[in-house]
Amino acid sequence: MSHYGSTFALFFLLPFIAVSASEAMLDSTVNTIDSSLNFVHRGTWTESIFVKQSLVPAALAVTSLGILAVPDLKNRIQERLNWNASEKVNLFDDELRYVPMGAVALLSLTGLKGEHKLLEEVFVGGLSYILADFIVYRTKQATQVTRPNPEYGNTSFPSQHASIAFVGVTLLNREFGHISPWIAVGGYGVATWVAYARIARNRHFLPDVLMGSAVGIVSTNATFWLYDALAPKLKNHLRCSPILTKDGGELALSYQF
Question: Where are the chain's structural domains?
Fold first, then answer.
Protein backbone atom coordinates (compact mmCIF):
# COMPACT_ATOMS: atom_id res chain seq x y z
CA MET A 1 0.00 0.00 0.00
CA SER A 2 1.40 3.45 -0.94
CA HIS A 3 2.29 6.08 1.65
CA TYR A 4 -0.64 8.18 0.42
CA GLY A 5 -2.98 5.25 0.78
CA SER A 6 -1.73 4.56 4.32
CA THR A 7 -2.25 8.18 5.33
CA PHE A 8 -5.73 8.17 3.82
CA ALA A 9 -6.62 4.97 5.69
CA LEU A 10 -5.33 6.38 8.96
CA PHE A 11 -7.33 9.59 8.43
CA PHE A 12 -10.61 7.71 8.14
CA LEU A 13 -9.90 5.08 10.78
CA LEU A 14 -8.58 7.33 13.55
CA PRO A 15 -12.07 8.62 14.54
CA PHE A 16 -13.30 5.03 14.42
CA ILE A 17 -10.58 3.87 16.81
CA ALA A 18 -10.85 6.99 18.98
CA VAL A 19 -14.57 6.69 19.73
CA SER A 20 -14.17 2.99 20.51
CA ALA A 21 -11.19 3.54 22.80
CA SER A 22 -12.88 6.45 24.55
CA GLU A 23 -15.89 4.24 25.32
CA ALA A 24 -13.58 1.62 26.77
CA MET A 25 -11.79 4.16 28.98
CA LEU A 26 -15.01 5.84 30.13
CA ASP A 27 -16.78 2.56 30.87
CA SER A 28 -13.79 1.39 32.87
CA THR A 29 -13.78 4.60 34.92
CA VAL A 30 -17.50 4.33 35.69
CA ASN A 31 -17.18 0.64 36.59
CA THR A 32 -14.24 1.38 38.89
CA ILE A 33 -16.20 4.08 40.71
CA ASP A 34 -19.23 1.80 40.87
CA SER A 35 -17.26 -1.06 42.41
CA SER A 36 -15.27 1.15 44.80
CA LEU A 37 -18.04 3.29 46.25
CA ASN A 38 -20.95 1.61 47.98
CA PHE A 39 -23.28 4.56 47.61
CA VAL A 40 -23.17 4.51 43.81
CA HIS A 41 -26.09 2.40 42.62
CA ARG A 42 -26.84 1.35 39.07
CA GLY A 43 -30.37 2.68 39.33
CA THR A 44 -29.20 6.26 39.82
CA TRP A 45 -26.95 6.00 36.77
CA THR A 46 -29.46 4.39 34.42
CA GLU A 47 -30.20 7.44 32.31
CA SER A 48 -26.63 8.74 32.04
CA ILE A 49 -25.22 5.29 31.27
CA PHE A 50 -27.90 4.75 28.64
CA VAL A 51 -27.00 8.03 26.93
CA LYS A 52 -23.26 7.46 27.21
CA GLN A 53 -23.41 3.95 25.82
CA SER A 54 -25.51 5.15 22.88
CA LEU A 55 -23.13 7.90 21.76
CA VAL A 56 -20.51 5.69 20.10
CA PRO A 57 -22.87 3.55 17.98
CA ALA A 58 -24.89 6.66 17.10
CA ALA A 59 -21.72 8.40 15.91
CA LEU A 60 -20.72 5.37 13.83
CA ALA A 61 -24.20 5.05 12.28
CA VAL A 62 -24.45 8.77 11.48
CA THR A 63 -20.99 8.72 9.90
CA SER A 64 -21.99 5.71 7.82
CA LEU A 65 -25.17 7.37 6.56
CA GLY A 66 -23.32 10.65 6.01
CA ILE A 67 -20.82 8.97 3.69
CA LEU A 68 -23.65 7.28 1.81
CA ALA A 69 -25.38 10.65 1.39
CA VAL A 70 -22.46 12.08 -0.59
CA PRO A 71 -22.52 10.82 -4.21
CA ASP A 72 -19.65 8.47 -5.05
CA LEU A 73 -17.81 9.21 -1.78
CA LYS A 74 -17.80 5.59 -0.60
CA ASN A 75 -16.27 4.51 -3.93
CA ARG A 76 -13.53 7.14 -3.72
CA ILE A 77 -12.71 6.00 -0.19
CA GLN A 78 -12.72 2.37 -1.32
CA GLU A 79 -10.16 3.06 -4.04
CA ARG A 80 -7.74 4.29 -1.37
CA LEU A 81 -8.31 1.55 1.17
CA ASN A 82 -8.74 -1.69 -0.81
CA TRP A 83 -5.01 -2.32 -1.16
CA ASN A 84 -5.46 -6.08 -0.58
CA ALA A 85 -8.22 -6.61 -3.14
CA SER A 86 -6.23 -9.46 -4.67
CA GLU A 87 -6.05 -11.04 -1.18
CA LYS A 88 -2.36 -11.82 -1.48
CA VAL A 89 -1.96 -11.02 2.21
CA ASN A 90 -3.96 -12.96 4.80
CA LEU A 91 -5.43 -10.35 7.15
CA PHE A 92 -7.07 -13.03 9.36
CA ASP A 93 -10.34 -11.09 9.63
CA ASP A 94 -12.36 -14.32 9.42
CA GLU A 95 -10.61 -15.68 12.51
CA LEU A 96 -10.07 -12.46 14.48
CA ARG A 97 -13.76 -11.54 14.56
CA TYR A 98 -14.23 -14.19 17.26
CA VAL A 99 -11.20 -13.19 19.36
CA PRO A 100 -13.00 -10.65 21.63
CA MET A 101 -15.64 -13.21 22.57
CA GLY A 102 -12.90 -15.81 23.03
CA ALA A 103 -11.16 -13.41 25.39
CA VAL A 104 -14.34 -13.19 27.50
CA ALA A 105 -14.42 -16.98 27.84
CA LEU A 106 -10.68 -17.20 28.55
CA LEU A 107 -10.73 -14.51 31.25
CA SER A 108 -13.76 -16.12 32.87
CA LEU A 109 -12.20 -19.58 32.87
CA THR A 110 -8.96 -18.27 34.40
CA GLY A 111 -10.90 -17.08 37.43
CA LEU A 112 -11.19 -13.36 36.79
CA LYS A 113 -14.55 -12.02 37.99
CA GLY A 114 -16.63 -10.20 35.44
CA GLU A 115 -19.71 -8.12 36.12
CA HIS A 116 -21.85 -11.25 35.68
CA LYS A 117 -21.43 -14.97 36.24
CA LEU A 118 -20.13 -17.18 33.43
CA LEU A 119 -23.55 -18.61 32.56
CA GLU A 120 -25.00 -15.11 32.47
CA GLU A 121 -22.21 -14.01 30.13
CA VAL A 122 -22.98 -16.93 27.83
CA PHE A 123 -26.69 -16.12 27.92
CA VAL A 124 -26.29 -12.39 27.27
CA GLY A 125 -23.58 -12.95 24.66
CA GLY A 126 -25.71 -15.49 22.82
CA LEU A 127 -28.76 -13.22 22.77
CA SER A 128 -26.60 -10.31 21.61
CA TYR A 129 -25.25 -12.33 18.68
CA ILE A 130 -28.75 -13.48 17.73
CA LEU A 131 -30.13 -9.92 17.85
CA ALA A 132 -27.21 -8.45 15.89
CA ASP A 133 -27.33 -11.20 13.29
CA PHE A 134 -31.08 -10.71 12.84
CA ILE A 135 -30.68 -6.97 12.30
CA VAL A 136 -27.75 -7.40 9.91
CA TYR A 137 -29.47 -10.13 7.89
CA ARG A 138 -32.74 -8.20 7.57
CA THR A 139 -30.92 -5.02 6.61
CA LYS A 140 -28.87 -6.83 3.98
CA GLN A 141 -32.04 -8.27 2.50
CA ALA A 142 -33.79 -4.90 2.52
CA THR A 143 -30.94 -2.81 1.06
CA GLN A 144 -29.45 -5.28 -1.47
CA VAL A 145 -26.23 -3.25 -1.79
CA THR A 146 -23.66 -4.70 -4.20
CA ARG A 147 -20.28 -5.41 -2.64
CA PRO A 148 -17.15 -3.59 -3.88
CA ASN A 149 -16.28 -6.80 -5.70
CA PRO A 150 -19.57 -7.72 -7.44
CA GLU A 151 -18.54 -11.38 -7.50
CA TYR A 152 -19.50 -11.59 -3.82
CA GLY A 153 -23.10 -10.55 -4.40
CA ASN A 154 -25.38 -7.83 -3.10
CA THR A 155 -25.15 -8.34 0.66
CA SER A 156 -22.68 -5.57 1.41
CA PHE A 157 -24.58 -3.37 3.87
CA PRO A 158 -23.97 -3.73 6.79
CA SER A 159 -20.91 -5.87 7.55
CA GLN A 160 -21.60 -9.04 9.53
CA HIS A 161 -17.90 -9.50 10.35
CA ALA A 162 -17.77 -6.06 11.97
CA SER A 163 -21.01 -6.72 13.81
CA ILE A 164 -19.75 -10.01 15.27
CA ALA A 165 -16.42 -8.47 16.33
CA PHE A 166 -18.11 -5.56 18.07
CA VAL A 167 -20.64 -7.75 19.85
CA GLY A 168 -17.71 -9.60 21.36
CA VAL A 169 -15.67 -6.54 22.30
CA THR A 170 -18.67 -4.75 23.81
CA LEU A 171 -19.28 -7.80 26.01
CA LEU A 172 -15.57 -7.90 26.87
CA ASN A 173 -15.59 -4.22 27.81
CA ARG A 174 -18.72 -4.46 29.94
CA GLU A 175 -17.59 -7.59 31.78
CA PHE A 176 -13.88 -6.97 32.31
CA GLY A 177 -13.24 -3.31 31.50
CA HIS A 178 -13.27 -2.55 35.24
CA ILE A 179 -10.13 -4.67 35.73
CA SER A 180 -8.05 -2.65 33.28
CA PRO A 181 -9.06 -0.31 30.45
CA TRP A 182 -6.34 -1.89 28.33
CA ILE A 183 -8.31 -5.13 28.14
CA ALA A 184 -11.10 -3.29 26.35
CA VAL A 185 -8.73 -1.12 24.31
CA GLY A 186 -6.97 -4.26 23.06
CA GLY A 187 -10.33 -5.78 22.18
CA TYR A 188 -11.42 -2.66 20.33
CA GLY A 189 -8.13 -2.70 18.46
CA VAL A 190 -8.80 -6.24 17.23
CA ALA A 191 -12.40 -5.41 16.28
CA THR A 192 -11.29 -2.26 14.44
CA TRP A 193 -8.72 -4.29 12.52
CA VAL A 194 -11.43 -6.75 11.47
CA ALA A 195 -13.54 -3.86 10.17
CA TYR A 196 -10.58 -2.34 8.32
CA ALA A 197 -9.55 -5.70 6.85
CA ARG A 198 -13.00 -6.11 5.29
CA ILE A 199 -12.42 -2.88 3.36
CA ALA A 200 -8.81 -3.74 2.49
CA ARG A 201 -9.96 -7.11 1.06
CA ASN A 202 -12.56 -5.29 -1.05
CA ARG A 203 -15.40 -7.15 0.63
CA HIS A 204 -17.09 -4.08 2.15
CA PHE A 205 -17.28 -0.32 1.86
CA LEU A 206 -16.45 1.93 4.81
CA PRO A 207 -20.16 2.68 5.55
CA ASP A 208 -20.80 -1.09 5.72
CA VAL A 209 -18.31 -1.70 8.53
CA LEU A 210 -19.27 1.46 10.40
CA MET A 211 -22.93 0.44 10.45
CA GLY A 212 -22.09 -3.18 11.25
CA SER A 213 -20.02 -2.03 14.21
CA ALA A 214 -22.87 0.19 15.41
CA VAL A 215 -25.29 -2.75 15.21
CA GLY A 216 -22.94 -4.95 17.23
CA ILE A 217 -22.52 -2.38 19.99
CA VAL A 218 -26.21 -1.47 20.18
CA SER A 219 -27.34 -5.10 20.18
CA THR A 220 -25.05 -5.99 23.07
CA ASN A 221 -25.86 -2.89 25.11
CA ALA A 222 -29.60 -3.36 24.56
CA THR A 223 -29.38 -6.98 25.69
CA PHE A 224 -27.54 -5.94 28.84
CA TRP A 225 -30.06 -3.18 29.57
CA LEU A 226 -32.93 -5.63 29.26
CA TYR A 227 -31.22 -8.40 31.21
CA ASP A 228 -30.10 -6.15 34.06
CA ALA A 229 -33.61 -4.72 34.31
CA LEU A 230 -35.37 -8.09 34.34
CA ALA A 231 -32.88 -10.30 36.19
CA PRO A 232 -33.63 -8.96 39.71
CA LYS A 233 -37.36 -9.45 39.13
CA LEU A 234 -36.92 -12.99 37.83
CA LYS A 235 -34.47 -14.08 40.50
CA ASN A 236 -35.92 -16.80 42.76
CA HIS A 237 -39.08 -16.86 40.62
CA LEU A 238 -37.84 -18.46 37.40
CA ARG A 239 -37.14 -22.18 37.50
CA CYS A 240 -35.51 -24.46 34.95
CA SER A 241 -36.21 -28.14 35.61
CA PRO A 242 -35.06 -31.24 33.71
CA ILE A 243 -37.82 -33.71 32.85
CA LEU A 244 -37.20 -37.31 31.78
CA THR A 245 -39.45 -38.64 29.01
CA LYS A 246 -39.61 -41.87 27.04
CA ASP A 247 -37.90 -40.09 24.15
CA GLY A 248 -35.07 -38.77 26.28
CA GLY A 249 -35.51 -35.55 28.21
CA GLU A 250 -36.50 -31.93 28.06
CA LEU A 251 -36.16 -28.72 30.04
CA ALA A 252 -39.19 -26.97 31.53
CA LEU A 253 -39.24 -23.28 32.41
CA SER A 254 -41.66 -22.12 35.08
CA TYR A 255 -42.31 -18.76 36.71
CA GLN A 256 -43.75 -18.37 40.20
CA PHE A 257 -45.93 -15.30 40.61
Answer: 3-255
